[in-house]
Design a protein that fits this description.
Layout (H helix, E strand, L loop, with lengths): L3 H14 L1 H6 L8 E6 L3 E2 L5 E9 L4 E3 L11 E11 L4 E10 L6 E3 L3 E6 L2 E6 L3 E5 L6 H5 L14 H27 L10 H14 L8 H20 L8 H10 L4 H19 L6 H17 L6 H12 L1
Parallel strand pairs: 2-10
Antiparallel strand pairs: 1-3, 3-6, 4-8, 5-6, 7-10, 8-9
Helix pairs in contact: 5-6, 5-9, 6-8, 6-9, 7-8, 8-9
């Protein structure tokens, strides 16, 4: 399956070749141009369609892409990246999106608005909508193998093969159970129980701070590792399989989670703000970067489970024994 990186490279190549065609059907308010393309106009549920948008804008222009938190219409945005090349005559930007759908209904990639600002002048570059056809859930590969028939054998098979197969099966079983026996015998009598989620998260946060990523200017690396720590904490603390969630799926879970209003706002702000840092190479100011770690540590401490007196007494009794 085509990944986002290879799709981005393909789109960059196409955009260079079709540079003259861009001017023929582009917005030209003050020298800006836009060109877009989709890898396909039909998909199976869960398949990814790669969408590329290329812009040529006056040098020094600021470009604001459309928000991705709520997807593009019925299409969910799984991931996106952007690249920028600056020259004296113009800046060229490319945005690459991986989108998919989870409903068996026709859908449309809506028009996407890119806001270009230069010297207090603003224009909107807009793509045209692209209708998408959702195919049946069954894979097309099944049609290629449905007519295959079992291999036909002629003659009477030799019983010697049965004895060989039986002997191999007995040998494999003996090896399997032997390994299990010796592995069990070598296993320690009792392993240490895992630390509570909040203790594990606080220790991970301390280790992250000790790496001095922020002082070294490694903001993107810092944000990625901090996000993984919080995901791990949410997964263990609230028993939710959040490790593979996209940012939008995390935000959807937060809205319906048992978190308090203040905690929901904190987590929502963190993942919404760090998403462009991780995937769009946006560099926030120092105050925002400092707030990431402070807010997440406070969030872990506030959501620490409250131990009842009965549970505390039971824990003390277990420690004494």
């Amino acid at each position: 399956m085509m990944n986002l990186k290879s799709a981005a490279m393909d789109f960059q190549s196409i955009s260079r070749v079709l540079f003259l065609a861009i001017a023929a059907h582009s917005s030209l308010c003050f020298g800006s141009m836009i060109f877009y393309s989709a890898s396909q106009d039909s998909l199976y549920i869960g398949d990814r369609v790669h969408v590329g948008v290329a812009l040529v804008v006056p040098p020094g222009s600021q470009v604001t892409p459309p928000p991705t938190d709520n997807g593009f219409g019925k299409l969910s945005v799984k991931e996106w990246t952007s690249d920028k090349t600056e020259k004296k005559s113009a800046d060229s930007l490319s945005f690459h999106y991986a989108v998919t759908t989870y409903t068996a209904e026709p859908c449309t990639l809506p028009a996407l608005d890119f806001i270009v600002t230069k010297d207090k002048t603003t224009e909107t570059l807009r793509t045209q909508p692209i209708p998408m056809r959702v195919l049946l859930v069954s894979s097309p590969d099944t049609a290629a193998i449905k007519d295959l028939k079992p291999q036909q054998n002629a003659g009477k098979p030799s019983l010697a093969w049965l004895w060989i197969i039986a002997g191999a099966a007995l040998l494999a079983a003996a090896i399997f159970f032997g390994r299990r026996f010796f592995a069990k015998a070598a296993k320690p009598a009792q392993s240490a129980p895992p630390k509570p989620p909040y203790e594990e998260a606080l220790e991970a946060l301390s280790r992250l701070e000790a790496k001095n990523y922020v002082a070294k200017g490694m903001i993107r690396e810092y944000v990625f590792e901090l996000s993984e720590i919080i995901k791990r904490y949410l997964e263990r603390r609230f028993a939710v399989q959040i490790a593979e969630f996209t940012t939008q799926e995390i935000l959807d879970w937060v809205k319906a989670s048992p978190l308090g209003l203040a905690e929901r706002k904190t987590v929502d702000w963190f993942f919404s703000t760090t998403d462009p840092v991780k995937f769009a190479k946006w560099l926030p100011d120092n105050d925002t970067v400092s707030r990431f770690g402070v807010d997440m540590r406070a969030f872990v401490e506030k959501t620490k489970p409250v131990q009842t007196p009965a549970a505390a007494a039971k824990t003390e009794a277990g420690s004494a024994s």
